[in-house]
Amino acid sequence: LDLSNCSLHDVPPELAEATTAIVLDLSENPLTTLPNKSFLGFTYLQLLAVPPALECPGGSDAWQEVTVSGSSRLCHGQRNPCNVSAELAWPCPENSVCAPDGPGLVQCLCDSTFHGYKCLREGTFPVLLFSGILGTATVSLSLLLWGTQRRKAKTP
C-alpha cells in the first residue's frame, strides 16, 4: 500500500481497514506522530516506511531491522512479541495464550473451554437457563399487567 507523498498530517482512520497489508509506505508525508494503535491488527506487515523523524511503531524492538535511508525510516521484519524469553514474556492471564496483534502489540486469547473476564469462566454461556428465566419473568410480568390493567380498558 503506497501512501507516500500524499500530504498526510495524521494517519488516516481508514488505514484500519488495511490490516492484511504486507508492505506500507508512509514516507515523504508531514506526519507528526505515529500512534501505536494505528497499526492494531496489522499482523502481516513486514515492511513499513515512515518519515525519518518518526520511530517505528512499537519501537525498534518490535522489528528485526530498522534502517534510515534517504527520506524514510524502514522498519523491516515484524517480530512476534509473544516469542521472547520467559522473563520478558507478555503476562497473559491463566487459561489464555498470547497472540500478536500488530507491531509491538499483543492480545490474550482465551483457551477453547474458557471465556469471560481474564478467561476465568469455564464452559459455555448457559443459554437455556438464561432464556428460561427471562421467558418466565416476561410471561409473569405480562400476566400481572394484563390482570391489573384490563379493568381500565374500554368495553364496546
Can you give a write-up of this model?
The chain is an alpha+beta fold and 156 residues long. The chain has 3 domains: 13-78, no CATH class; 86-121, no CATH class; 129-153. It is built from 1 helix and 8 strands, in the order E-E-E-E-E-E-E-E-H. It has one helix spanning 127-149, and strands at residues 23-25, 47-50, 63-69, 72-78, 96-100, 106-110, 114-115, 121-122. Strands 1-2-4-3 form a 4-stranded mixed β-sheet, with no helix packed on it. The protein is elongated, with a radius of gyration of 26 Å. The protein starts with 22 loop residues before the first strand and ends in a 7-residue tail after the last helix.
Our measurement of the CA-to-CA distance between the termini, rounded to an integer number of angstroms, reads 72 Å
Unreliably modeled segments: none
Helix content: 10-25%
Please identify the oligomeric state.
single chain
Q: How many independent structural domains?
A: 3
Q: Give the SSE string.
A: EEEEEEEEH
- Fraction of residues in β-strands: 15-25%
Annotation, overall tally of beta strands: 8
